[in-house]
Amino acid sequence: MAWNEPNNNDPWKQQQKRNNANDLSKKLNDFFDKSSFLSWIIFLAVVLFFIVINNFYTVKEAEEAVVLRFGKFSHIEMPGLHWKIPLVDKVTKVDVQIVQSTKSVGSMLTEDENVVNVEMEVQYKISDPRNYLYNMVDPDTSLTQATDSALRYVIGHTKMDDVLTNGREQVRQSTEELLKSIISQYDMGISIVNVNFLPARAPDQVKAAFDDAIAAQEDEQRFKREAEAYRNEVVPKAEGQAKRILEEAEGYSRKVVAKAEGDVARFERVLPEYNAAPQITKRRIFLETMENVYGNSAKVIISADRNGASPLMYMPVDKLIDSINKSNSGENRNGGKK
Predict the structure, then answer these.
(1) CB under 8 Å to 314, separation ≥6 — which residues?
(2) The 72-77 sheet, strands edge to edge
(3) 134-184 per-position pLDDT tens digit
């Protein structure tokens, strides 16, 4: 081999080639390590972003949200936009404005040992979401059982006629009061809105007889209303007539008393004259009296004389004229009517 020919077996050159290959590999490894780290950062940022976004929640206007932190009650959120801590907070939304209802239906024994079929509907709302969710295992079922218990107690202390007819409102009020006192002891988080006692009915075996009894009671109430209406019509008239009669009696009393007082005053004026001249006074009183009598009479009968002649009838001319005029006017009126 010539001295100027390339020597491929030179160890120095081979070592240099190996060093260059190692440098390239190292640079590639560094580049890929940096890219992987950046990718992980981007990935974690995206995951964190979605976690933050997905843990926002909205509480509606009619709702309240109960928040548990590490399984323990933390607080209650009002309507609006809120955020919960992932894997730490648990949120349960409760509608506190919707009115729900439950019924109690069954055959129950009354105070007079009769069986009636009754049905009661209870309307309620959730007043305390925390107590509603965590104080009772099943508050709705518990309310139904409490309603059934209260209704059975009230029916058991009420007679059947009252349950079926005019005592229904009292049954409803008593059941509502007892039910409220029961649920207040358990903090169920429920408030009673209304209690409706639906029409009760007798068992089918005696339904016809009780229908007749109810019809008779309705007739009784109708007769009472008619009698009350008649009383309201007659009593005011009777009171008015009685008042009018009393007023007429009082007027007559005042008239008689005034006339008597006038007679007494006149007698007291005449008495001194009578004491002074009795005969003259008697004569004057007699003449005045006869004047009044004859003045109001159309006929005057003069007694017969001592010789037995028949009595003489005298009719004053002025009274005769008045009598004729009255008779003519009466005939004219009758003729006009005809």
Answers:
(1) 299, 300, 301, 302
(2) 72-77, 63-69, 89-95
(3) 988 899 999 999 999 999 999 999 988 888 778 889 999 999 999 999 998
At 34-77, the pLDDT tens digits run 556 677 777 677 777 777 777 888 889 889 999 998 989 899 99
User: Is the pTM for the entire model greater than 0.85?
Assistant: no
> Residues 138, 183: contact at Cβ < 8 Å?
no
**Two structure tokens written together for 29:** 């490894």
The answer to whether the beta carbons of residues 188 and 142 sit under 8 Å apart is: yes
Q: Which amino acid is at 8?
A: N
Name the DSSP class of 134.
H
Q: How crowded is residue 102: how many other Cβ atoms within 10 Å of its Cβ?
A: 17
Tell me the HSE value of 301 on the side-chain side, using a 13 A CA sphere. Answer: 4
- The three-point CA angle 255-259-265 to 5° equals 145
Closest CA to 118 of 174, 166, 160: 160
